[in-house]
Amino acid sequence: MPLIEEFNRHGNFLFRYRSMLPLVAFLTALGIFIFNKIYSRPNLTGLSDLYILSCFAVSMVGFAIRVYTVGHTPDRTSGRNTKEQVADRLNTTGSYSLVRHPLYLGNFFMWLGLAMLSNSVWFVVVFILGFWLYYERIMFAEEMFLRTKFGDDYINWASKVPAFVPNLRNWMPPDTKFRIKKVLRKEKDGFVAVVLIVFIFNFIQEYGRVKAFDHFDIWFFLTISAIIVYAVLQFLKKKTQILKD
Q1: Can you give the pTM of this predicted structure?
Q2: Could you tell me the end-to-end alpha-carbon distance of the chain, in angstroms, rounded to an integer?
Q3: What is the phi/psi pair of residue 16, to 5°?
Q4: Neighbour count for residue 133 (Cβ, 10 Å)
Q5: What is residue 40's DSSP assignment?
Q6: Which tens digit of pLDDT belongs to each residue from 92-116?
Q7: Which residues constitute the domain of residue 38?
Q8: CATH of the domain at 63
């Protein structure tokens, strides 16, 4: 099989299962963190509150990129579809005027912050390389799809806009209004996942240090709040029309 077809086939396969990457990254990071804390380097200084907050901030940068992008894109373009590529139109303004794959850029920062919680420089390096290799094929398949569907319009846009590293000089205001309801429907999962993972790391560290759980910890309250908000939004999405545009 020619290499271009092989890349496209691999990319479409990985596209369908791209939601598995954060789960694998989280479990690996958690395993490394626990191993170093209990077996390999039990005397190693734990994660400081400032470091945990910094990791959370990195993840929130990625979340903000996703929120802005999703809020300004029409339905059936950028989203969480997994069965097949979908694009009723070519997005070229807003986030897409800076970078061709803003949602994947957002994913990168969201998961980078969580990878940093492993407290392992080597794992962070491996994560970055793994993310690039994994998503390079997905981006290739998506761009083949868009090139076939939109032809010269896609080529003209892609020739000016970088694939992954934003070019701020290309900025064009979004041509659609920000849709908060769409964001609440689509992005609640990512936020509660980040908060929950940070809480898990913090819980393991604090329990390992003092053999007790502080119910007044800020991450505990943030996690409970995030879960409640998620449950409410999920109910509104499934049982009402409130979150419909």
Answers
A1: 0.88
A2: 45
A3: -70, -25
A4: 10
A5: I
A6: 999 999 999 999 999 999 999 999 9
A7: 3-83+90-177
A8: 1.20.120.1630
